[in-house]
Amino acid sequence: MGRPEESRSEVSAVALVGGLGDVLSALSKALQRKGHLVEIVLPKYDCMQYESIQDLRVLDLVVESYFDGQLFKNKIWIGTVEGLPVYFIEPLHPAKFFWRGKTYGEPDDFRRFSFFSRAALELLHQADKKPDIIHCHDWQTAFVAPLYWDLYAPKGLNSARICFTCHNFEYQGTAPASEIASCGLDIHNLNRPDRMQDHSSPDRINPVKGAIVFSNIVTTVSPTYAQEVRTSKGGQGLHATLNAHAQKFVGILNGIDTDSWNPATDSFLRFQYNTNDLEGKAENKKALQRHLGLSFSDSRRPLVGCITRLVPQKGVHLIRHAIYRSLELGGQFVLLGSSPVPDIRREFEEIAKNFENHEHVRLILKYDEALSHSIYASSDMFIIPSIFEPCGLTQMIAMRYGAIPIARKTGGLNDSVFDVDDDTIPVQLRNGYTFVTPNEQGFNGAFDRAFNHYKNDNESWQELINRVMNIDFSWDTSASQYEELYLQSVSRARAARQAAG
To answer: Start and end of every Glycosyl transferase family domain (predicted)?
Structure first.
């Protein structure tokens, strides 16, 4: 198979927003290692980390794309990011769509990303690209699927299969139906219950629904989450559409970039370490305690880590509870995370203030990449008490650094954390502590057992650390599953073309 073309709104190291950018660059690199030509198409944001782009240059190719009844020129740039070729589209549009100082969260996001989706397809068409797979991610590039079949396949860009991955069905990008016309899509054809009409109103359009209907392959980021979103409770209004297209919908667990997340080579750490020599983990813990002004007199006092966005999805009431429960059980607690929700932000600022001089608790309410590596390396346990979690990467990273996860059984957490006391799970797969009910009692059931284990059976705890650090959470397995889906879809399309003669 030749080339997956990745149409996406962000990629790690350039326009990283949360875990999506991490996932996209790691998947692309894994596919590239398997011998595929992977090219990425991104908007040219003004707020990108330009120092991460090698050989950035403008192409002698001006791509014109349709929007609001007229053609607009797009300047096309190309560069290399982490060994991957990336095309950057700079719209010469008076609205300055991607010169806003941020990637998402603008009032006209629907217009910005529908413009980008059409321009990206126009780039493929005008540059005479012939991808086997066009892989789109989340609602911002969901427009590609209907645009491709309605407008570009008839123009001759018809060799590709469309793969759409939704990383979180909570975000669907709905808008008034009239807005779909700007990028050239036909409202009357698409604003129908079996196509793009949102379940909430006949006057609203849903890009994610359109991508589910019009893509050849639809994926999400873990097998359990794929089951959850096919129910009325978890589907965010899209369960009926997903069930109608179930034959092409699959959950594939994300991996992590094991080059970036490797305690043996991590340049952010004061002390590197591995499963054969865990002394560096203890030294990192001491260094972090010193750095944050925490007590380090008792090396056997367990340190509980938490790195997260403080939003309702992440179980903030349980994170708050865990701070106090850690103290009651004789532990320390470190939280790194910020919140876009004013009430939650104020609440945690108040908690941080109360503990600012405490010897066993520290809350750092911001994003800090270097500190995140130190916390993973220093923590004995790591909490992920999410209400729902499509995949979750923190539990995988924590395990790679020898921190034992305490997680709620939901989504990707259910596919990657298996309780040490669960007799139905093979012993060699048990790697943490889990709970089901998202309340304090449910959380304590797992949390207290972890503390008892840590304090009362050091030898078995060390064995558990070795086990979790040796689990393969690399992208190789997941990339192989994507590769298989791509190949099957391309083969079916070729067979159908031959049959049609």
So the answer is: 298-454
488 shares a domain with 434: no
Cα distance between residue 170 and residue 177, in whole Å: 19
C-alpha torsion angle, residues 96, 369, 469, 291 (rounded to 10): -170
Closest to 306 in 3D by CA, of 363, 366, 370: 363
Torsion of CA 338, 342, 344, 349, to 10 degrees: 70
List all residues 6 or more positions away from 67 whose beta carbon is below 8 Å from its beta carbon.
93, 115, 118, 182, 183, 184
pLDDT given for residue 306 in this prediction: 98
Tens digit of each residue's pLDDT (9 = 90 or more) over 31-64: 999 999 999 999 999 988 888 889 999 999 989 9
In a domain, 273, yes or no: no
- Confidence band of 18 (pLDDT split at 50, 70, 90): very low
Asked whether residue 232 falls in the same domain as residue 294, the answer is: no
For residue 433, give the amino acid letter. Answer: Y
Q: Looking at residue 148, what DSSP letter applies?
A: I
Determine whether 237 is exposed, middle or buried from the number of CB atoms within 10 Å of its CB (0-12, 13-18, 19+).
middle
Q: What would the two tokens of residue 330 be?
A: 């004789």
Q: Collapsing DSSP states into helix, strand and coil, what is residue 480?
A: helix
**Phi, psi torsion values for 399, nearest 5 degrees:** -65, -40
Task: Give the DSSP H/E element, type plus range, for residue 103.
Answer: none
Cβ neighbours of residue 40 under 8 Å, at least 6 residues apart? 6, 8, 11, 24, 28, 81, 84, 85, 86, 87
Q: What is the pLDDT of residue 50?
A: 86
Indicate whether 34 and 148 sit together in one domain.
Answer: yes
Cα separation of 384 and 322, whole Å? 11
List the beta strands (DSSP E) in 138-235: 161-166, 175-176, 204-205, 217-220
Both 284 and 244 in one domain: the answer is no
Query: Whose CA is closest to 103, among 65, 57, 136, 141?
Result: 141
Query: ∠111-116-119 over CA atoms, to 5°?
Result: 125
User: Cα separation of 316 and 318, whole Å?
Assistant: 5
* Domain that includes residue 438, residue range: 279-472
For residue 399, the SS3 value is helix
Count of domains for the chain:
2
Residues 252-311 have pLDDT tens digits of 999 998 888 999 999 999 999 999 999 999 999 999 999 999 999 998 999 999 999 999
Neighbouring C-beta atoms of residue 472, cutoff 10 Å: 9
Q: pLDDT band for position 500 (50/70/90)?
A: confident
> CA angle at residue 77 from 75 to 82, to 5 degrees?
155
Q: Does 268 fall in a domain?
A: no
Give residue 257's pLDDT: 86
Q: pLDDT band for position 24 (50/70/90)?
A: confident
